[in-house]
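Narrative progress, year one. The postdoctoral researcher (J.K.) led the effort to move from monomer predictions toward full complexes, under supervision of the PI. The following entry was the first complex the group processed end to end, covering 677 residues in total.
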Amino acid sequence: MDFRSLTFSGVSRNFGRRRALSSVSFSAQAGQVVALLGANGSGKSTLLSIAATLLDASSGEVRYGSVTAREGGPALRHRIGLLGHELYLYPELTAAENLRFFGDLYGLDRVAPRVAEALALAALADRADDPVSAYSRGMRQRLALERALLHEPRLVLLDEPFTGLDDLSAMALRDRLSRVRDQGAIVILTTHELEAVDALVDVAWVLSRGRLEPLAAGAGSLRERYRRQVQA
Amino acid sequence: MKRLFPVLLILCIGMFAYAPFLIVNAPYESTMGLVQKIFYFHVAAAMTMFVAAFTCGIASAVFLFGRRPGADRVGFAAAEITVLLGLIVLISGPLWARKAWGVWWQWDARLTSTLVMWLVFQAYLLLRRFGGPGSDKLSAAVAIFGAALVPFVYWSVNMWRTVHPTTSVVPTLDASMRGPLFWCFGAFLCLFLLLLAARTELQERRARLDDLYLALEDS
Amino acid sequence: MTFLATAALVARKDLLVETRSREVIYTSLLFAISCMLVFAFGLVKEGRVVADAAAAILWITIAFAGTLALGRIFDRERQNETLRALLLAPAPRAAIYVGKLAGVLALLLLVEAIVVPLVVLMFDAPLFRHAGAMLALLLAGSTGYAAVGTLFAAMLARSRSRGALLPVLLYPITVPVIIGGVRGTAALLQPEADMVVARAWLMMLISFDAVFITLSLWTFEPAMTE
């Protein structure tokens, strides 16, 4: 199963009395990098969780192509990759074992070559047999990214992937995501590091207390436009 | 449910008002005398408690698998009533046992089973209160497990206790006692339905209030 | 991936993780031994254990150590949110439950492998006189306990107050397992072992396992999706 767009129609999500998302509607296409901007607590992680099918919307509809999450079932999850705050790695296992486990779990063929390729892309080939608990934050993030991309998902969801990255790593991440985008993926990421993603982003949205608005086009960098919109 | 409320209320009051007359006129049990008459309320409450527990289990299954939020409200109300009725059974039981046999608690099969079921549904309520977001689905699973547990608890506690001889809790039922017992059971059922209707209505209003808060935030 | 293959994969991963860190097995074992010690202070009178107490000590120790192990196993998953990653995979979610159950059960049986001989030694209880029946009881009881425990611990992994709520939820539901285990073991410990009674308890435990594993398989996915 595959799809070329992700569409949110009037999606709302509340936790008891707290409204996390309020009638969010947008559409993202294959070959796009979408940035989701907003203050902490504005609902960005909730939106990503709903897009990843881990959370149900309280109302509204999410379609992957023309299919809803329920209709898509497990096959849909095959085409989705998520990288969260907590990286989803087993610290007791080595990098190679982590990748191999998720490769097998996703039922990929040719797991061994894919794992080798992923390790090379993460520049961790020489540390592949060390337990992840011995890795620095940057190394873990590179590994976590490759784990999320291992099964070549159509929809790539990243929750603050640039946090804590040094300049070089941020550049490498940008290149990686750019390549993923060029291969036809839908990339949706949340971030506070507006300078880091400026050159990468095709479309930007702003979430403010659960409501989604497009970032106004205009002159200036991403940060300048964002500040203008938020302060307006 | 709401429309039946006044009808149920009158029925309930009527049945409970008449019940004492039936109980007074029921024959005395040979060994225990007057004390035995507590059994009419004690057993009726126990039977109704199991009705409530099954209601909770079924409503929870409908909520969990059918995704109907209304079912969750019914389930929550039923769980509260299960705990309430359980409390009635667990207090009247020892009171009776003390007077009839001199000990407050002798681990008889039925009271012990009631205690276990009471704990399960009390755990349901605790989970609702302290579990945080998502605890409605979790407690629904607990209720389903609790309902499925009934035959197992009853069988194992019974088997545990009958290896040793014990005094019988419910004497073989004299025909003239059956009437008042079923009347009391009917009265308790009415009470159950009444409380269920009221509590579910309260939950619905709370949900509507939450929606209003959300609508307010939206605007 | 097929259902069983997924379950096997998850179970193997859990075993690998546990053999690397060994945290849960060590703490559970040590806790079990302390538990037995505490019971001994209450139930051993003039150097001899009160009748049937050995059976009780065995099963209560298993129950308590099991709760500890369950809590730690799912706390570990929660720390790196790997449970989310598992749920996100295209594998059938009930298979993840089965895989985790297998891991928990293996751990529990390993703890019992140490605790049972210790009970034999410390409380002079001839648990191995009818080794076959004893093993069957242990297996059936542990499976029932682990089945319900794994489901509840997984469900509670993201809740507040999960540490306190797990025992509150688990113990009432596993009452039949405790009764069956203790009374079955006690029947075997009689000078003239009561095989009929022991078999009856074993049958009850097996039907408990069947019913509650089925229920867990049905409820795992709906209960885990928020």
